Amino acid sequence: MKFIDTNAWCGSWPFAPIQGKSVVHPTLPRVGYEIHESLVSCFDTLFQIDPMPGNRSLFDAFRLLKAFIPLPVINPATPAWEDHLDELIEHPSIVGIRLLPSYHGYRLNSFHVRRLVERLTEHSLRLVITARLVDERHEHPAVSIKPVQVTELEKFLNDYPRLDPLIQGLGVHELKTLSAVNGRFRTDTSFAEWEDTMKVLKRDLPTSRILFGSLSPLQVQQAQIDKVRLSSISEAQRIAIACGNAQTYFGLQ
Amino acid sequence: MYGPSPNRKQLRAINDETAQLMAWAPDFFIGFCYLNPTLGERAVRSEVDRCVGGLGFRGLKLEIANNARAACMKPVMQTAENFDIPVLQHTWSQTKLRLRSLHSDPDDTCRLAKRFPNTRVIMAHLTGCGFRGVLAARGIDNLWVDTSGATPEAGIVDHAVSNLGPQRVLYGSDLPIRDLPAAIGQIAGADLSANDKEAIFYHNSAKLLKIV
User: Fold this and answer.
1) Looking at beta carbons, which residues of chain B come within 8 Å of A135?
2) Which of B93, B95, B182 lies nearest to residue A227, judging by beta carbons?
3) What topology is assigned to A3-250 in CATH?
4) Which residue in B179, B180, B197 has the most chain A C-beta atoms within 10 A of its own C-beta, making it the best mutation to test that interface?
5) What is the pTM for the complete model shown?
6) b (16+ CB within 10 A) / e for B162-185
7) Contact B181 A195 (CB under 8 A)
8) What's the ipTM?
């Protein structure tokens, strides 16, 4: 089974010894792990006020590696974010941009996010929102980064009924709550987990709205793959979650 | 089902369900007797006698009725020693949760193992214990960790093996509130030798529970 990983990362992560597992290594995600393509963002965009050095290194690293599709990060709380977006949309491989409101300290109802949504819509780019990267119970004691709350996401979805963003890093209970009030979003598999996770998710979300995301290298990629590959849902549904939905959503070949 | 502090009748019902599973598939299910230490010595000994002495359970399981440092743990640990069975203690780092009156931090469970060196202790939920929990567990000969709990975070199983040795790590799934293939995949996908993975998946638990 082929997989498209919509939630892969590269760069330096300061809180755990995972450097050797980075997707920067060009063979790791593809040998034996069935990953066909990965949408990759750079950790360096999280902790630096200016995300562009991280974004530029991302495009440089994967310029010749077509299996890795850069998913750059915009920080709308920085004054120059529109210039950053102008630079990013010049890259022919760009399919969308990622927001990390919890890491960059802004709310989804801010003026700048509204302007950003307008710009993305003009350029037919997808919006990926990271609600959570790390289980907040396991964070380093020096940091306290709260996940984006379901109520904030609900209001955002209500404000932009035609946007259809990909919201990553939500747990099964959060997805159940959000889908009950507004189902106009896609999600990934990275933080959703229960017994036979895909079957549980399918009760509340159409499978067409579930995309595979491993959160590699923060999470064990094989475990995330097996969560989908060995699920009891139909083969057609597993294939859709593994790669078909991402192909359609991001317009990948 | 009954909250963090079940009474005697509720405990009995829980353990009866476990016994039913063991009866259905005796070659597959190994029962651990769920206890509430706050019910006192008499209640603890009575339920352990019934489940371990009578029904063939092979361990004791403790969740969040009390912290592992509490005085009420003494009869639990002495009973486990008398029956020569391990005690599995729910453990989660309290650095962020701050629920320590009920939940046990890795420091608490490690202290428990040190206080009762003749009783084998399983510190449950490696991912919840985190890197600090692994470091706290170093050098405690009667302590094991299990890999259950939370999403399959990278690096933590490898860290446990390199700090504690592969023989100290036990596979755990936390079913039915986690995904079984993900729990297995966390170990299968770790940077470990095939021998270490086999030990974690099977041999270490088999030896600990004396089933080989």
Assistant:
1) 127, 150-151, 153
2) B182
3) TIM Barrel (3.20.20)
4) B179
5) 0.93
6) ebbebebbbbbbbeeebbbbbbbb
7) no
8) 0.91
